[in-house]
Recover the amino acids of this structure.
């Protein structure tokens, strides 16, 4: 009996013996050899110059940014396919290495580190949520890996980040709200109450829209901040001050549909006029039950979700490649609505990385500094297959791109564009010159 | 908004929160009271209820009222079944040891959460309310469905109370809670009672979630807040005391609603946690507890 107990203790319970471990390693090595003998691997096993360009894609696959992450991934895949079919970058194929950051700043920095040290990625790319960008950018700067964000936050152009962080594919909040304010003040009203998420992105809205309204002779009379993880919103609506003419809402996170529905329950048909950022309803069908009260209200859009008569052939090409129908839903599932006003940024950023790498003659991580300088040299971007959202102007000093904005009115369950701003309306004075920072 | 209507709105919001919280916490309290198990996976059962509700509504697609009704029946049954399997295969094998079961239910929480993430995905999805009815008060509108949630929760709690005090099964449960060994001596199938109670606790959580899903949407992380609040309620109310649990749920839920409306939701959470700390210091048994926490 005692012997039995003893022998039980000595034997390792996991059952992995040295012989087995060796056999396993051998099998793995053989498998690896077999794999590299496959036709697909031959190409990359040659010289450095034909190896793929590795782009580390920091994706919000889980956490509060998941809906955006799904569409950012689809757009990235489509753009990569288009680029590779046209010969890749400098004749080399593009390979996307996706890592989930959980929409979490701490994890974001770790993901950047993995790209740089483990995956040997050439650049990092693709982050949306501003707190993840702010958490990750310092690490990208330390590791000297170019970090192309698709975030909308003003933190790039404000000078808060570093020379390795660029935003060439999507406009920032400061520029967006500045070009919205004149239209809101002259068409909807001058006394505005703002509802926004209580983190960096929302604070950008609060600060820059307030300033832009003041410049128009308007006033923001109420500022209501809501934590982005909130799931119940009704309690915030009584804080909207009396005398509010325009309710300005922008919300993110999994609860956005609840937020807008509860707004409708609270006001019914007799509320103030409503101007929202489409972020409040990205990935949500505008014709959902409970949203009827939005009829006639206005939204900012970065890129019109519903195909317009004015949408050109480049938008049609982009829409088809990503797999989005004329109503902004997935071709496979009409219930799966795109984050159309943001995801074009992924497509355009990848094309800008291509343009930068080609003009820098990029060959490998040793040329990262040259890539940064090449992108900083870019000025005009024409409306094209690479830029389906429209023409843009890049500011190499602030690392921020500027473009057109859209205002759409809800009518018959669709978003119909009623106003398109000029690029220049979004300009503001440079707050930083990153080109003066060392590389 | 004037003070009166503002207070009314705050009270309504608080009452809805309290109604759902009472159901969830009641499940946690029952499991602890009868089995002496701290079920950390309770929030996961809550989330499971919401997700199954979405699945049922999506698969059935028979109009919002029928969808909801089906979800109301199927989701708690599904959560109960998962709980029963977990109880039979995990908790029973640990002999309901208090320390081991805490660790085991933490594991269960992760397993359920990850399986939900892998199958249901990371999105928040809505289940339509059974009816689209809005009460227009002179100062603001209010969802008729939310008022129904309060009524439904009261009805369920009355039924649980009746079941515990007036039925044979309730008697068995109370006997097991009072003294496991003596109950066994009186031929009460303690083993089956344990399985039933664990499943029933999960069903109450799932029921709370089905009620909440038309208000909040189903999401794989939605169980965390209810779990925290349920623990707070159970500690404040007194471990194992159903009366205390319901009263504490009303107090915590209402104060959470009212403080959230007049001040901020963060302050409401701070105060609730502070109350727990104070109660643990001043009255470790909780309001109606029979043994110390």
């Amino acid at each position: 009996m005692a012997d039995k107990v003893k022998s039980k203790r000595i034997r390792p319970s996991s059952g992995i013996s040295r012989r087995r471990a060796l056999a396993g390693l051998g099998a793995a090595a053989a498998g690896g050899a077999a794999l590299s003998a496959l036709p697909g691997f031959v190409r990359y096993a040659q010289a450095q110059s034909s190896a793929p360009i590795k782009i580390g894609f920091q994706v919000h696959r889980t956490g509060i940014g998941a809906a955006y992450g799904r569409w950012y991934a689809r757009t990235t895949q489509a753009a990569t396919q288009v680029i590779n079919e046209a010969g890749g970058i400098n004749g080399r194929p593009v390979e996307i290495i996706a890592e989930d950051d959980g929409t979490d700043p701490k994890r974001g920095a770790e993901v950047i580190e993995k790209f740089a040290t483990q995956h040997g990625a050439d650049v990092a790319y693709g982050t949306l949520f501003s707190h993840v960008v702010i958490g990750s950018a310092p690490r990208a700067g330390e590791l000297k890996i170019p970090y192309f964000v698709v975030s909308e936050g003003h933190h790039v152009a404000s000078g808060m980040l570093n020379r390795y962080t660029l935003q060439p594919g999507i406009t920032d909040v400061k520029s967006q709200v500045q070009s919205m304010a004149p239209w809101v003040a002259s068409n909807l009203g001058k006394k505005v109450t703002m509802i926004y998420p209580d983190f960096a992105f929302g604070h950008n809205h609060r600060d820059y829209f307030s300033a832009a309204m003041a410049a128009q002779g308007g006033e923001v009379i109420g500022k209501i901040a809501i934590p982005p993880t909130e799931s119940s919103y009704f309690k915030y609506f009584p804080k909207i001050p009396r005398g509010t003419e325009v309710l300005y809402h922008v919300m993110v996170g999994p609860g956005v549909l609840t937020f807008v529905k509860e707004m409708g329950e609270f006001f019914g048909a007799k509320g103030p006029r409503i101007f929202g950022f489409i972020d409040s309803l990205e990935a949500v069908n505008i014709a959902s039950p409970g949203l009827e009260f939005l009829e006639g209200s206005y939204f900012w859009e970065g890129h019109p979700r519903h195909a317009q008569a004015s949408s050109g052939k480049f938008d049609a090409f982009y829409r088809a490649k990503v797999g989005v129908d004329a109503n902004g839903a997935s071709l496979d599932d009409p219930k799966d609505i795109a984050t159309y006003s943001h995801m074009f940024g992924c497509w355009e950023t990848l094309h800008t990385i291509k343009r930068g790498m080609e003009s820098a003659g990029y060959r490998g991580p040793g040329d990262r500094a040259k890539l940064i300088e090449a992108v900083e040299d870019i000025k005009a971007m024409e409306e094209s297959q690479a830029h389906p959202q429209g023409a843009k102007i890049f500011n190499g000093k602030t690392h921020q791109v500027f473009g057109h904005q859209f205002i759409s009115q809800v009518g018959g369950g669709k978003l119909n564009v009623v106003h398109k701003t000029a690029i220049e309306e979004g300009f503001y004075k440079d707050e930083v010159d990153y080109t003066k920072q060392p590389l | 908004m004037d003070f009166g209507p503002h207070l009314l709105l705050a009270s309504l919001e608080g009452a809805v929160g309290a109604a759902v919280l009472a159901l969830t916490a009641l499940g946690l309290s029952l499991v602890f009271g009868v089995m002496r198990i701290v079920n950390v996976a309770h929030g996961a059962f809550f989330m499971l209820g919401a997700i199954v509700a979405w699945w049922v509504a999506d698969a059935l697609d028979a109009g919002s009222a029928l969808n909801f009704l089906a979800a109301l029946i199927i989701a708690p049954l599904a959560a109960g079944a998962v709980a029963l399997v977990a109880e039979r295969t995990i908790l029973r094998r640990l002999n309901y040891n208090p320390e081991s079961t805490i660790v085991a239910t933490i594991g269960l929480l992760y397993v359920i959460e990850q399986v939900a993430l892998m199958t249901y995905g990371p999105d928040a999805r809505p289940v339509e309310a059974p009816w689209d009815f809005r009460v227009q008060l002179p100062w603001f509108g209010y969802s008729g469905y939310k008022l129904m949630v309060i009524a439904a929760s009261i009805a369920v709690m009355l039924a649980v109370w009746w079941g515990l005090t007036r039925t044979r099964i309730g008697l068995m449960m109370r006997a097991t809670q009072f003294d496991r060994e003596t109950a066994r001596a009186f031929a009460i199938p303690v083993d089956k009672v344990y399985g039933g109670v664990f499943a029933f606790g999960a069903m109450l959580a799932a029921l709370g979630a089905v009620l909440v899903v038309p208000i909040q949407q189903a999401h794989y992380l939605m169980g965390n807040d209810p779990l925290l609040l349920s623990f707070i309620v159970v500690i404040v109310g007194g471990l194992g005391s159903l009366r205390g649990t319901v009263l504490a749920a009303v107090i915590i839920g209402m104060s959470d609603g009212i403080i959230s409306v007049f001040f901020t939701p963060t302050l409401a959470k701070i105060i609730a946690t502070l109350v727990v700390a104070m109660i643990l210091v001043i009255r470790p048994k909780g309001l109606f507890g029979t043994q110390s926490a």
In short: Strands of chain B lie at 134-136, 141-143. The radius of gyration of chain B is 19 Å. Chain B has a mean pLDDT of 90. Chain B touches chain A through 33 residues (CB under 8 Å).
